Amino acid sequence: MSITYLEAIREAQTRALQENPDVFIYGQDIAGFGGAFKATKHLARDFPGRVLDSPISEDAMMGFAIGAAIEGMRPIVEMQFADFSSIAFNQIINQAATHYWRTGIPCPLVVRLPSGGTAGSGPFHSQSMESLYAHYPGLIVLTPATVGDAYWMLLEAIEINDPVIFCEHKFLYYHLKAGALPTVEERLPIGKARITRHGKHASVVTYSAMVHEALRAADELARLGYEIEVVDLRSIKPLDTDTVLASVARTGRLLVVGEAFPYGGVTAEVIARVTAEGFHLLDAPPKRLNARDTPIPYHPNLWAAHRPTAATITEALRELLGF
Amino acid sequence: MSITYLEAIREAQTRALQENPDVFIYGQDIAGFGGAFKATKHLARDFPGRVLDSPISEDAMMGFAIGAAIEGMRPIVEMQFADFSSIAFNQIINQAATHYWRTGIPCPLVVRLPSGGTAGSGPFHSQSMESLYAHYPGLIVLTPATVGDAYWMLLEAIEINDPVIFCEHKFLYYHLKAGALPTVEERLPIGKARITRHGKHASVVTYSAMVHEALRAADELARLGYEIEVVDLRSIKPLDTDTVLASVARTGRLLVVGEAFPYGGVTAEVIARVTAEGFHLLDAPPKRLNARDTPIPYHPNLWAAHRPTAATITEALRELLGF
Amino acid sequence: MTSAPVALPGLPDGITAGRFLEGFHFMLLARTLEDKIAALYHSGKITGGVYLGRGQEAFSAALAVCLRQGHDIFAPLIRDQAGRMAFGEDILDTARTYLGSVKGPMKGRDGNIHRGRPDKGMPAMISHLGAMISVVCGMLKARQFRGISDTVGATCIGDGGTSTGAFHEALNLAAVEKLPLVVAIANNQFAYSTATDRQYACKDLVDRAIGYGAEGYSVDGTDLAACLAVFDKAVTRARTGHGPQMVVGNLLRLCGHGAHDDGSYIPETIKSTPLGQDCLKLARQKMIDHRWATHSELEAMEAAAAEAVQQAVAQAQRDPAPDPAAETWQPLASRWLLETDHPTT
Amino acid sequence: MTSAPVALPGLPDGITAGRFLEGFHFMLLARTLEDKIAALYHSGKITGGVYLGRGQEAFSAALAVCLRQGHDIFAPLIRDQAGRMAFGEDILDTARTYLGSVKGPMKGRDGNIHRGRPDKGMPAMISHLGAMISVVCGMLKARQFRGISDTVGATCIGDGGTSTGAFHEALNLAAVEKLPLVVAIANNQFAYSTATDRQYACKDLVDRAIGYGAEGYSVDGTDLAACLAVFDKAVTRARTGHGPQMVVGNLLRLCGHGAHDDGSYIPETIKSTPLGQDCLKLARQKMIDHRWATHSELEAMEAAAAEAVQQAVAQAQRDPAPDPAAETWQPLASRWLLETDHPTT
Ligand SMILES: Cc1ncc(C[n+]2csc(CCOP(=O)(O)OP(=O)(O)O)c2C)c(N)n1
Ligand SMILES: Cc1ncc(C[n+]2csc(CCOP(=O)(O)OP(=O)(O)O)c2C)c(N)n1
Ligand SMILES: [Mg+2]
Ligand SMILES: [Mg+2]
Q: Which of B238, C137, C248, D63 is deepest in the core (most CB within 10 A)?
């Protein structure tokens, strides 16, 4: 038996619908059609009236979910692509994110964002928006990199009493498989980073699809005798600074990798935190690697050169190790 | 004679309308009424047909400006408050910011954002959105802190062949005055940071209204014998890393201050750059100071404790100096 | 067997003098309170924006009078002091919020017209116009999920707010879901300083209803009786499964946009049209004319309103202001997810 | 003195057989090209999304045939291959973009249906539906600023796209500015998999026109002659100062949403209604019936279309792909503002 990242997301939604009558799902083409990526396949059939097709109205979709959440429901909103959440941006940052703080009434909802690049998807179907959402107070921002995390973090996200931005990586949907889902005891709670690979020469702190690129880079460098530690942040906000600092304490060298645009964002945040609290731990200047500072190109040749890859991570690590 | 920050913005628009027939201004209540802050007072009268009231439609306002810009006009869009640009967010980051890169046709426009906090303005009339806009490729993001910069940077912004996010600080509108505008020779071009105050014990890198808080903190510490250098970034993107590094080279200590929310953003970016390129220059861990990670509170008591102030900057500098 | 309701002289079918009186009561209370708030603002006692409902009280109160407190949903906007009161908002909530008391519903975190009590069916507006309509839709859907099918959700917006994409998306969504939504559009002829000819180009905003498949009504917003009749109908239609209802009230904002604005751009020519009539005066006169109340009864009501306002303001002024040291400075309900160990600032 | 135009049998007033033929020509060319593109997609030669205009060619071509190339503005959407061609888009632009040639108008930076040449009056769409309408408004305003008053701006959208706030804001803005805008709404009964009953609840989307103060038309989108007539009228009205025009074409998407989608959710019952007719076949038959062209002339046209497509595809396939090393990786036109010294990644 094996299960994909996408199937894990579907399974988590199935279970949530089964176990919690307050859960419902709202989004474009998610009912009969099962969603653009089939993350809700058969769910409308199995849970009649609880998986609803929306009009092409991201702002209203989000407001609708907020209203339901305020009343105690647990809506899951599927954006067809993360990129379209720019239309729901106002409702997310100004309405959902501020609601609890302003009124004392929680706003428990999950926005599922099919994120990140795949070949040929171009500037408007490839974005990684976690840095934007993390910037605004009041949101939880999650970026699962594994099948097990996709499952458990989504289930946990649905239980959280705050708005959660759940960044799924489209590149992992079909390709990433696991033999089975972790048990509840094996799961790591939201807010904790995971040491995905232990090492002692340098730490790569990353998340989402880039975890896998980093692991390949670590493999590559292992052949040269370097042991690279790979830290999967899992949750961007809250950010598990302790685990990151502990890793840097072990290795003395830090590379932070993200697929989002370079200015500000998660990678800069990690570096700012590590240098503030763990300056003395660093044996070399911290480095970061992000996508390039242009829109995400359509052509596969260009796209491959736009985001970080195992090759560019390896190169950055070589520089870091050679410092 | 004296001129306020707000008057400088009005003067710059007047001059642009006079000198460049392609310039027009679009926004809510900017024609007869002269704008919520009076930044366009009398301009509709003096330039008939070129200062137009828009419906309450930030998305369409922005699309409208983009269309005109593509055709070679130089639109200035006034958002009534920066916070409402969240509705225009999609058009800004996905349409304006990508246009030149995708098509080779420039999209020269200026979006004026009355930004930042003032007492009693609350969560939706106080935001500093520069970090959001800087994160996306294709935008120039400016944050003038002085009367002269408000004038010259706006004029220069209108000439730039790219979309410019012009973050004006509302707190400075009426309070900040200058004796006269700098001459064209005295002006500093966009892309250059300014050493507003020279010092040797620590560098405060900041921008917009926080420059003035930092200067007051520097005054305070001067009484204790510390010479604090204050660097006004002026332009958030592009960011003048050279000037920042040179300052850190002189002082060995870095505090970065911003009024935006803490996660990611400008302050993290500056620290990530300095630690990557100037790690060896630092005698102490770099620090940053931002607003708190909650929505911006309405009540003046809370608001004063939410954003950085001369007092909290002083405190942060003391810690930094004592390291 | 029910007997057909008999229309009173001066009142439309189904509207009783009692209802009218109830509406008038809240109009009066709102006007009295807002006059006081404006005075406090001008004497520097209020921080932040003050937006008044002067001239719109009939339209606002009539809507809320037709709703069921504790059961329906009412999402007011910036000119709905009258509707808020008619929906049961405590006058002390208002006074405390304006005067910066930490005991107000927003604890000083948000201010003035942004207050709300979502758990009592009154969401707290964000500033971005149009954004509350879809929220009300979601609240209604939640009620339906819970098996409550007869909740009505009402929300208010201005002529300017109809230009937002949020307005459109939410109206359309409500129609697709056939939700019991009532949208009250107070067309007060101006959005801040912008007259309607720079805001829209249709003949009447009610012409938008058909494009959503919603039922639409246009009403003289200065006439309390007419407002009661139209909202009575719209609320009933919504409650009985006829989907979203759009009610456009034609009236004039009898003040500036905010207390900071003298509204000098409002031409005299429009002030002297029927739109410019003061709904409160009209309602008062009607009560006299039809002998639903005597002069002295009305004066007693006015005195009671003044007294209630006075007490609330006095109480709020005695309240403590928020203390930054006591503030949590944490935006999350999930306390275990707070990052308290690491300074993020 | 002009003589009154005489309607040909089978053609509405003012539409000549020549116009019809022109429309048919571009419909045919588009269909031929898109069949080829679909085949290339299915053999793995095309990266990214492929969205076809099958069944919508009459509606799309008719609009563009009524525009003035080099003078008007045409902002197509994902199903407007026919309109693009009728507006003068080079077939090589299409082939190059789909096949990832660096010589295409987007140089490989953006793909497939996102191509455009704004300097030729054809903006390059972003994916976010509704976002192009206000852009066209701005382009029209720019022309007016430059003293050009007779440019018409046309843009296309689907039934689903009408639910966006962007659609609403732009239509309203256009009406306020009384811009010469023509919005063509291809109501192909589905938005991706979503049928119209989950998209809107009005009877006909054209009912939205009145709410903007725009002029509205509803037309059988499978009927080229009817489409020509309605767009001829709408474009003329726009050009002569009557403000925005909204044309709703009723038709059916004769394929899946994209080439990746078999559209199996489209019920047979709708396919067999008049909506499900193939506009290309109808137009062809009409030309035969009315003897505007012979069978062999039509076959020659078909052969020429196939040849043109074949050549363009062959050329594009010979072109080089973009080279990351040659790419500037810089998003700004203002080169002096680029940060080239400091690695920001
Ligand atoms: C999306 C958005 N843009 C701008 C504003 C700023 N603003 C606040 S009230 C107002 C005018 C509102 O006019 P209208 O909707 O007619 O309501 P009225 O004030 O007349 O009651 C504006 C422009 C806002 N609140 N939201
Ligand atoms: C704002 C936005 N949300 C979602 C999408 C994803 N999407 C692309 S096409 C499409 C369906 C469009 O339907 P319609 O407007 O009817 O056009 P059609 O495809 O039928 O021609 C959707 C949902 C999008 N492009 N933009
Ligand atoms: Mg108004
Ligand atoms: Mg469609």
A: D63
